[in-house]
From TrEMBL:
This is Reverse transcriptase domain-containing protein. Residues 57-262 form the ENPP1-3/EXOG-like endonuclease/phosphodiesterase domain. InterPro entries: DNA/RNA_non-sp_Endonuclease_sf (IPR044929), Endo_G_ENPP1-like_dom (IPR001604), ENDOD1 (IPR039015), ENPP1-3/EXOG-like_nuc-like (IPR020821), His-Me_finger_sf (IPR044925). It comes from Hirundo rustica rustica. GO terms for molecular function: hydrolase activity; metal ion binding; nucleic acid binding. SUPFAM superfamilies: His-Me finger endonucleases (SSF54060). Residues 1-19 form the signal peptide. Keywords: Signal.
């Protein structure tokens, strides 16, 4: 009896590990931070857990809403690299029928293989027809192909289970012209009472609430810029502040070493300290803008910087 039970558990593990539409993300947990998928807050009513499989390898994980035929999220590891974009769009065979193959496939090939109609495919997932003839909207990747390395990995993102309608005008303006959407630049300022008399304005702290998509985008842009500037040696290794994985203590120790060794050798030593203060607040915006362009930053991301520096509308609540 126990053997039978063990065998059953073993068989169900096998089934899990080899399936594309799974009952949990256990077989592709490597795409989540610390191997832990989010809790069920984002879970739709009729969910599908998809370990996105292409060319016999897992590439990312998607939580899919089968009723609304749209993904809730895709989890992936950011590894940008070379490769080509796919010319075809894929769908998920196992959302049509759990016995179908685990690798994503094109609608055309599934129609031929299983003698099914696009309508049958489209019952629990989006199909090409949903995205044809859309006005001002196109296919937006939740796991973008430009964050992937190699042909297979990039092509795996071209499954419609990874796609949401995306406002093209919005994005083009944002990236090409460097213009931030108004809703992104608006900071909502709420006064938060510190202590003392509430009638005295000086007793309030201003709390700025910036838009969340903007903050996420800022972090991405910042990490790429930092990367680029460190690679092209725009930041010297002795710069400790504002760099990840460095500490001011290290700088102090190395500085102390440089100061004390001449003294030990009986030589004189002088030290001039310049306080640059918080550069962002005090350096002229023109200089802040010139520096990155000298390191080869493109016009569009510079437009972003300029936009964030010059126009910060505020609204008080
Ligand atoms: C990737 O795909 C492109 C276009 O299909 C092809 O020219 C290239 O050789 C492929 N690269 C690799 C490494 O297979
Ligand atoms: C920077 O300078 C301003 C004004 O000159 C001053 O109020 C502020 O305390 C300084 N900040 C630091 C970190 O020294």
């Amino acid at each position: 009896m126990l053997w039978l039970l063990l065998l059953q558990v073993f068989a169900s593990c096998l089934w899990l590990g080899h399936s594309e539409v799974v009952t949990s993300f256990a077989s592709c947990s490597q795409f989540f931070h610390a191997g832990t998928p989010p809790n069920n807050v984002l879970e739709p009513q009729n969910p599908a857990w998809i370990c996105q499989r292409y060319s016999n390898a897992y590439h990312f994980a998607t939580l899919y809403n089968k009723d609304k035929r749209i993904p809730a999220y895709s989890a992936y590891i950011y590894q940008p690299g070379p490769g080509a974009r796919s010319k075809s769009w894929f769908v998920e065979p196992q959302l049509i029928n759990p016995t179908y193959p685990k690798n994503m496939d094109t609608e055309y090939s599934l129609q031929k293989k299983y003698k099914i109609t696009p309508q049958q495919i489209g019952q629990s997932q989006a199909i090409n027809q949903d995205y044809n003839n859309l006005k001002d909207l196109n296919r937006g990747h939740l796991s973008p192909s430009c964050h992937r390395n190699g042909n297979n990995s990039k092509w795996s993102t071209f499954t419609l289970t990874n796609i949401v309608p995306q406002n093209t005008a919005h994005l083009t303006r944002c990236w090409v012209i460097g213009d931030i959407p108004d809703a992104w630049s608006l900071a909502i300022v709420t006064p938060s009472h510190k202590k003392g008399c509430k009638a005295n304005l000086g007793n309030y702290r201003r709390v700025h609430l910036a838009s969340l998509p903007r903050k996420v985008m800022e972090q991405i842009v910042l990490s790429v810029i930092t990367w680029h500037i460190q690679d092209s040696e725009g930041i010297s290794p002795s710069q400790q502040r504002f760099r990840k994985g460095t500490s001011c203590l290290e700088n102090l120790i190395s500085f102390d070493d440089q100061m004390t060794s001449p003294v030990d050798e009986g030589r004189g030593c002088a030290n001039i300290c310049l306080d640059f203060n918080k550069s962002f607040g005090t350096v002229t915006h023109g200089i802040l803008m010139e520096k990155p362009s000298a390191y080869g930053l493109q016009r569009c991301s510079l437009g972003w910087d300029r936009n964030s520096l010059m126009s910060r509308p505020r609204e008080c609540w």
